[in-house]
């Protein structure tokens, strides 16, 4: 992607800031409100790229505030489904709608975090986070909200640093803060920890759980790591050849321990389904 001095910073990060589900951010008040978590209702979602029929009539209900993980073989359509959820792409057929706690239809404030943090190297960590608020927010409000989001990801002390000074895990926490700063009702995570080393990843898993519990958004996490899926989610969905082949509830209470035999059992069941042994 060409990076020039006159390009809007938002354009460099993700198209999600301009998608059709979003309303323009009003001046200050919006960010001062609590998130309204968005439930998801998918009916007959189809997605084709030419002859490639990627999603074949997905029906899915995600209750308000649930943490769902989506797993499946590479190329099975996980990222495609996430992009549809946050409005980065349109389904070929079917309906996606969002509802609030009372069951009323709402516009979700949807955000997405990718595997690469996509930070702007020439502005500070705090300004990178404030970019997530979009236009129409005063500099002072932007600063305050960025500080709050950085505190949520335990990076307050890095606010004034350049992104280049941070470790990979810290950069990904900044990307998470940028997604959280506008208080999303739906947070989509596309293999957000996939590029991190094993120990950093475990720490990040706890952080993601903590912010989800604290902020109360609905979370949809795509991961290729079934251990991560059962550790984090209330429910794990397996996608296979464009359809949901398993929808597994993970009712184990939190905090969850790595090596928990109940979770290991569920992990095995998921792997068998993905590998076609079930
Ligand atoms: N923008 C696109 N144009 C054409 N084909 C695409 C596009 N995005 C994804 N695909 C195709 O859709 C299928 C699913 O891709 P993807 O959702 O990225 O899989 P996953 O995230 O599960 O690995 C693949 O065959 C991929 O080539
Ligand atoms: Mg993908």
UniProtKB/TrEMBL annotation:
<protein>
    <submittedName>
        <fullName>ATP-binding cassette domain-containing protein</fullName>
    </submittedName>
</protein>
<keyword id="KW-0547">Nucleotide-binding</keyword>
<dbReference type="GO" id="GO:0016887">
    <property type="term" value="F:ATP hydrolysis activity"/>
</dbReference>
<dbReference type="InterPro" id="IPR003593">
    <property type="entry name" value="AAA+_ATPase"/>
</dbReference>
<dbReference type="Pfam" id="PF00005">
    <property type="entry name" value="ABC_tran"/>
</dbReference>
<keyword id="KW-0067">ATP-binding</keyword>
<comment type="similarity">
    <text>Belongs to the ABC transporter superfamily.</text>
</comment>
<dbReference type="InterPro" id="IPR017871">
    <property type="entry name" value="ABC_transporter-like_CS"/>
</dbReference>
<dbReference type="InterPro" id="IPR050093">
    <property type="entry name" value="ABC_SmlMolc_Importer"/>
</dbReference>
<dbReference type="GO" id="GO:0005524">
    <property type="term" value="F:ATP binding"/>
</dbReference>
<dbReference type="InterPro" id="IPR027417">
    <property type="entry name" value="P-loop_NTPase"/>
</dbReference>
<dbReference type="InterPro" id="IPR003439">
    <property type="entry name" value="ABC_transporter-like_ATP-bd"/>
</dbReference>
<feature type="domain" description="ABC transporter">
    <location>
        <begin position="40"/>
        <end position="266"/>
    </location>
</feature>
<keyword id="KW-0813">Transport</keyword>
């Amino acid at each position: 992607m060409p990076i020039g001095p006159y390009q809007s910073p938002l354009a460099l990060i993700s198209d999600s800031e301009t998608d059709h589900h979003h309303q323009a951010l009003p001046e200050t008040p919006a960010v001062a409100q609590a998130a309204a978590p968005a439930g998801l209702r998918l009916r007959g979602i189809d997605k084709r790229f030419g002859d490639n029929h990627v999603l074949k009539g997905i029906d899915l209900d995600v209750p308000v505030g649930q943490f769902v993980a989506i797993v499946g073989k590479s190329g099975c359509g996980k990222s495609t489904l996430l992009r549809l959820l946050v409005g980065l792409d349109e389904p070929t057929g079917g309906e996606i709608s969002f509802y609030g706690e009372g069951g009323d239809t709402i516009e979700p404030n949807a955000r997405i975090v990718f595997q690469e943090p996509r930070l702007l190297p020439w502005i500070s960590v705090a300004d990178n986070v404030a970019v997530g608020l979009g236009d129409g927010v005063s500099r002072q409000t932007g600063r305050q909200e960025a500080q709050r989001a950085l505190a949520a990801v335990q990076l307050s002390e890095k606010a004034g640093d350049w992104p280049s000074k941070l470790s990979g895990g810290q950069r990904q926490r900044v990307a998470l803060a940028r997604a959280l700063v506008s208080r999303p009702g739906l947070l989509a995570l596309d293999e957000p920890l996939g590029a991190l080393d094993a120990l950093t990843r475990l720490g990040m898993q706890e952080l993601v759980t903590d912010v989800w519990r604290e902020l109360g958004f609905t979370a949809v996490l795509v991961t290729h790591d079934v251990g991560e899926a059962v550790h984090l989610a209330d429910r794990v969905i397996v996608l296979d050849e464009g359809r949901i082949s398993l929808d597994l509830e993970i009712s184990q209470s939190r905090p969850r321990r790595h090596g928990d035999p109940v979770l290991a059992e569920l992990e095995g069941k998921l792997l068998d389904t993905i590998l076609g042994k079930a």
